[in-house]
Write a structure and sequence with these properties.
Order of helices and strands: EHEHEEEEHEH
Strand content: 25-35%
Helix content: 25-40%
Shape: globular
Largest sheet: 7 strands, mixed
CATH architecture: Roll
CATH superfamily: ph1033 like domains
């Protein structure tokens, strides 16, 4: 399906998911958020960007990670159910992921509007899915993708002012 995004109108999102679950999503080309609920997936539109933040390596017994672990773009307008077992049928959405490096959040805390100056920055992440400013997205994406990737993103996002 062709890219349906309108240049300059994309939105930027953080999804909070354990690193092991992020890895499955990247390998399968999908997003699954908030224990399989449809609402966070329906808030996103084709062309929107999603960055995953992983507080832990695994959901329950995992080691603390506190890192951004994947970055991708919403591929189309379809939100669908996927039967993982007889008792768990979560909602998913297709995402085009980009190769990236895992980036710890600690060095970025003073550079992001949703964490800057906030000792309790982790509370924001407990919602599981939230929108971020374009500037925050470019800061995180720049750290994850490097200089060449950031240039490509700025072009894809519309260079706009101040970027």
């Amino acid at each position: 399906m062709p890219d349906q995004s309108v240049p300059g109108q994309e939105r930027y999102w953080i999804g909070v998911v354990s690193a092991s679950h992020v890895s499955r999503g990247v390998q399968g080309g999908f997003a699954q958020l908030c224990h399989g609920k449809s609402a966070p997936l329906r808030r996103m539109r084709p062309g929107d960007w999603l960055i995953y933040y992983s507080p832990r390596t695994d959901m329950k017994e995992g080691e603390p990670l506190q890192a951004f672990t994947a970055i991708g773009r919403v591929a189309d307008d379809r939100v669908y159910e996927y039967r993982m077992s007889d008792s768990f049928v979560p909602f998913r959405r297709d995402i085009r992921y980009f190769p990236c490096s895992e980036v710890k959040i600690a060095p970025l805390l003073d550079r992001l509007s949703f964490t800057r100056g906030n000792r309790h920055w982790g509370y924001k992440l407990r919602s599981g899915h939230f929108e971020i400013a374009r500037e925050d997205f470019l800061t995180i994406a720049g750290a994850m993708l490097g200089e060449a990737g950031t240039l490509h993103l700025k072009q894809a996002c519309g260079s706009g002012s101040g970027a």
